[in-house]
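Lab meeting prep.
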Amino acid sequence: MIKTNPKNARAKRALEKKESKLVENVKTALFIQGSTGTRLLHDAMCDLSAFKKPDIKRFQKKNDIKPFEDASPLEFFSEKNDCSLIVFSSSNKKRPNNLTFIRTFGYKIYDMIELRIQKNHKLLIDFRKTTFQLGLKPMFVFNGPVFDSHPTFKHVKSLFLDFFRGQTTDLQDVAGLQYVITLTAAEVEEGKALPSVYFRVYKLKSYRSGQKLPRIELEEIGPRFDFTIGRVEQPSPELEKEAMKKPKQLETKTKKNIETDGMGDKVGTIHVGKQDLGELQTRKMKGLKSRFDQVGEDFDDQEYEYANDEVVEDYEPAQKKQKV
C-alpha cells in the first residue's frame, strides 16, 4: 500500500483508521452481486448479512467480475470500502447459485472458496419470524472430524469463524448467547467428490427444569443451506506467513525454567547451591551412636573404625556354640 500525505484533518483521520493496529477492528463484509446473479442469491446474501450486521456493506448494482480469472476489481473495492471480507454471487449453467467467499490481507486477495447452494434450501422468510439483538456473536458447532483433518474443510471452518467473529472482548454474558450456527459434513471418500456442507442456524431457548440449571432447547430459525464445495484458492506461503505474523507487543513472554506438562500442571525448575556433605549430621538419635554398632556374620569389611579411633584388621566373627 502506497503511503500518501493527507491534505486536511479529515483525510488524516481516514488514513489513521486504515493503519495497522495491535488489535484489529471488526472485519467488515462487502456483498457484491455478479452480472449473472439470481433472486435466490440476492435473498441468500441478505440473510447472511442479517447475522453480520452492522459490519456490512452491500452493492445494489451488478458487476461483471470473474474472481478466479481477474481479481483486481475486488481488490479495488476492498481498498475503497475498507473491507477485508467479500461475498460475490454468480450463477451460470456450469456453476449455478454460486457464492464466492473471499478474504483479503493488505487489500490483496488472501484466499477464495466457492460454495454452491443446492435446491433444498430455506430462507429466513420460510421460518417463523424470530428476532434477536444485532451485533451478537454466535456459537459454532462443527460436526465431523473432516473439519480438523482435511485442508479444504479446514479452510471452510476458518472462513466462517473469521466471518462471524465480531468484536474481540473478554466480557462474558450468558444473555448474549442467543443463537448457534452448526456446520456438518460427512467423511471424505477416496475417488468421490467432496461431501456437502450443511449450514444450519438455531436459536437458544431456556425453560424451567426444576433444578439449578435451566433446560436448553434449540429451535431452527434459518436460513438453511446445503453447500457444495467448488473451486478453492489457497494463500501463498509468503502471504500466509506475513498474515500470521504477530507483533512483538502481543507476544507472550516466556518465563525461564517454567513449563506446562501434558496434564496442564505448571512445573518449575529450581537451582540450588552445591551442598557440603561434610557438615551433614546423620546421627541424632541415641540408637545410632557408634558404641551401639553391631557387627554380624555377614560383615566382611577388612577394617572397621569405631568412635574411639581404634582400627581392627582381619576381624574374624565369633563362632557360634553348637550343641553336642
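Slide two material, second protein:
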Amino acid sequence: MNRTAFAALLLAMTSGTAIAKLSPAEADKLKKELTPIGAERAGNKDGSIPAWEGGLTKPPACFKGAGAWYCDPFPEDKPKFTITKANVDQYKAQLTDGQKALFAKFGDSYKMNVYPTRRTAAFPDFVYEATYKNALNAELANGGESLNGAVMGIPFPIPKSGNEPIWNHKLRYRGAGVDRWNIQAAVTTTGAFNLVKIREQVKFLYGTKGLSPEQLNNVGIYFMQTVTAPPRLAGTITLVHETLDQVKEPRRAWQYNPGQRRLRRAPNVGYDNPGTGSDGLRTNDQTDTFNGATDRYTWKLLGKKEMLVPYSSYALHSNKLKYADILKKTHINQDLPRYELHRVWVVEANVKPNTTHIYKKRFFYVDEDSWQIVAVDNYDARNTLWRVQETHSVMAYDKPFLNPVLESVYDLQSGRYLAQAMNNEENENGEQDYDVGFFDPSNVSKQASK
C-alpha cells in the first residue's frame, strides 16, 4: 500500500467513518432480488418461508375503517406445531438462546405456537423510493453516532456493519406520528401486577414525506410521555428530542415532576437508567425494544438466520382481551402469541472498555422484512444470560407499517417480567401529525401546569 492510500485509510479509521454508501449496481438489487427495503424477495429452499409479494396492504373484510381496531386477517390459520419442553431440542437451531432459557426455566407452562409464515411487512411507495436514495447516500460517521445523508426511508437496506441494522430499527417508518397508550405491568413471581398507564405522543420527523436531510435540523423523533396512573406517578412527563448526530448534539431530554411543577433537563433519560414505571425491570434504552445512542457498545454483524420469532400478533392484540387475560404467572399467556419462521439479522453488541452498561453483551435479532427488532438476549457482567426480550407486532394494513403491540422483558434471575406497549383495553393507536412546536419545552410546561 502506498503512503497516500495508507493515509486515507488511517484518516477513515481515526474519524470513525463507516463506509456505507453503495454503488448504483449494488443499490439496484433493491429493485431485483431484494425487496425495496433490503430483504430477500425469494422464499427459502423448503418453502417454509414464502417469497415476498408486496406485503399486506389491503385491509381484510373484518376491518371497520380508519381508527378501528386491527382485526386478524388470518382467522383460519392454525398452528403448524407447538414447541414444548418435551420437544424443544428439535427446534433449538431456530430459537434464540433467550427462548431456550425460557423453556428451561418455565417449561412446565411455557410453549410456542408456530404458524405458517406470512410475509406481511410493507411500507408506502415513497418510503421505498427514499430507501433507494439512502442506499446511495447514507453514511455513518464518528464511530457510528452521526447519521448523514438519509431521510424517510431505511438508511442502510444492505447493511455492512453491526450498528447499521440498529439505525434501521430506530428510524423504520411508523407514519408521521402517533397518539397511543402504552400500558405497562411489572408482574411478580406470584402473578400479581399493577398497571402503569402512559400516554405517548410522537412525531416521527425523519419519516415525514417530502423532507430533505437538511430540513430535519438534526432531529429524527420528537417524543412525549405522560403518566396518567397510578396516582403516585400521575402527571410525570418525559420529553425527548432524539438527535441524528449525537456527537454534534446528544439526545435532548426533559422531565416534569408534578410535585415540583417544573420541567428540568434530564440527562439521565437514556442508556441503562431505569425506565419509567418499570419497577427496575427495564432500562431506558429498552423502550421500543432498543432506542437511543449506540456509543457504549461495539457492534458486530453476525449475518442472517432463519428463526422462530413473534409475528402477526393479532390474537394477542385483540380488544376482546383484558390485561388479566394476557398477564399470567412467570410469563404472558402463551396461548395468545403467534410465532413464525422468518429470516433475521443477528447483531452482537459488547460494552466498550472504559464505559459501562448493566448489560455487558447483547444479541439483537432484526426482522429482514421490517427492520423491527423482534428479540434481544441481554447478558450481565458475568456473561450470564439475564434478561430476554420479545416484541410482538401487527401489520397496520391500512397505513401501511408494522405496529408493536406488546414488548416483554423476562428477568431470568428474579423470575419476574415486564410487559409494555399494550393497549387492549384502551383506544386503538391513532396516527397523528403533530406540529414540531407541540414538543417545545415551553409548550410542555404550559400544558403540564394547567
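Talking points for slide two:
Residues 81-121+159-449 form a domain with the outer membrane lipoprotein receptor (LolB), chain A fold (CATH 2.50.20.10).
Confidence is low (pLDDT under 50) at residues 1-17.
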